[in-house]
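pinned: reference chain
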Amino acid sequence: MYTYKSGIAQIDEKTGGFDAGTNILILGPPMSAADQLAYALTKPVPGEYAIVLSTNERAAEVIDAFKVAGADKRFTGVIDAITKSSTPGITDTARLMFVSSPTDLTGIGIKFSNMVETIFEGNFADGETGLFPPPIRFCVNSISTLLMYRRLEVLYQFLHVLTAKLKKIEGVGVYILNNESFDEKTLSLIKQLMNCVIEVKVEQNVNLMRIRGIPGVQGDWMKFSVSRGQVTIQP
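pinned: its structure tokens
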């Protein structure tokens, strides 16, 4: 079974990376490096694909962020929940799909399935990888925005379907959640859907993370930085 490199030495040296079907929750406050970390974990290495559900950045901004990180844009797709509200006539392509708003969970689910199907059929990019099932990294940026529009119970069911789909296609999922805006009940319920939780915090302008749920990986706080899609653990 395929293993997804995390780019974090503490994980890759112990386990080789994330197992296929792993869902990872990144908990972090605003103005931390949680978003950068999520994109670093989602960035496809050669032979992989990435899909980003963006609820707070336009597709062009997401593609630019992945380009700066060194990802091949031919293997990166975006489901954009922002642009269509201001540009209703915009149309889908194989790699860029649009929904009316973050409230449209049904539309998001359909676009995700369509994009995955396009990848599996080999119609997503020139120079398809040939691996089967095709390795797909998926990022939701962010659960926090979705929770602003939909009730927790509704969103839980939506995420339950998404996480199960990722396991079925042997992909990995990365989900960002602002842990300062929601109560412990909400955090606990979302955690139930995940295999691994990475907590992020900021102290004295330094980003720290700790990793929970990966056998053999210690859950100590570690200083880290992200630059051009690369995660560096600092002494």
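why pinned: The CA atoms of residues 22 and 172 lie 5 Å apart. The domain at 21-234 is CATH 3.40.50.300 (Rossmann fold).
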